[in-house]
Amino acid sequence: MRFARFKRAIRLKTIDSCFEDLKDSRLVDETFTVDEVRDMLDGLQLVVRGEVETELINTAHTNVLLLRQLFSQAEKFYLRLQTDISELENRELLEQVAEFEKTEFKNPNKTNQEISKPKLAPLNEGGVSELLNKEISRLQEENDKLKGRLRTLETQAMGALDEKTEAKRALKDLQKVQGEQKMATRSQEITSLEDTVAALQEDYQKSLSVNAASQRDLQDNLVSAKHDLLRIQEQLALAEKELDRKFQQTSAYRSMKEILTKKNEQIKDIRKRLSKYESDE
After folding, report:
1. Residues of the chain with pLDDT under 70
2. Which segments does the entry list as coiled coil (predicted)?
3. Closest CA to 22 of 7, 42, 8
4. How much is the pTM?
5. Structure confidence at residue 109 (pLDDT)
């Protein structure tokens, strides 16, 4: 407020100087025409308008820079500031500010005394410490919560490890029992297979002995059959010879032989004739 009051005082002095310049430079005659007065007022209006506009623009920009500093400091401490534009036009609050300004700057000596007073240390450090303490407390609470959660997770992990170890032990016992059962089953199967093989071997030996005896019988029967066959063949050969001899002694055989002899001679004669005809051709 002191800074704004100082800037406002300077701007008012500037406006006063504009009027003084007009008085000193233009109001030198005793009489003025309407056009001359209008011209002087228009010039004064432009100058005053420019000064007031400059002051308003400067005040707005100054407020922007002030708010920028405040918001930048708030962002460093992760604070979220909010503004209510409607409060800027609250007539009651504006009157309170005006009353405060009048009371605070009514006595010029009081203002000089306050300026000369030693300034207190800024409260920024205290605010920072308070914010840091709050942040530290919050982090400690989160750390305690995380530690508790970590202990819970460790307990659950240990329980899971114990369950896993117990499951492995049970699996090993089960595998051992299954292995023993498999070994017993395999030994039973092996014994059964050995008994089956022994029975098959015994049957095979029996069948071999039976086959050997039957083979010997067959060989003996074959030898006797061969002897009988040779004897029968010999008897058949003697019988054939006897039949041939008896057949040759019959009249039918002799007449047939004579006929065959004549036929052979006739064939020979025909062949000779045919050979002659073939040579002539």
Report:
1. 107-130, 279-281
2. 129-280
3. 42
4. 0.34
5. 57
**CA dist., res. 196 & res. 199, Å (int):** 5
Structure tokens at 261: 């002899």
User: Could you tell me if residue 135 is left (phi over 0), alpha (psi between -120 and 50 degrees) or otherwise beta?
Assistant: alpha
pLDDT at site 122: 45
Helix (H) or strand (E) holding 83: none
SS3 1: coil
Q: How far apart are CA 112 and CA 163, in angstroms?
A: 82
Who contacts 101 (Cβ-Cβ below 8 Å, separation ≥6)?
Answer: 1, 5
- Strand segments (E) across 135-280: none
**Contact call for residues 18 and 44 (beta carbons, < 8 A):** yes
Task: With beta carbons less than 8 A apart as the criterion, state whether 18 and 48 touch.
Answer: yes
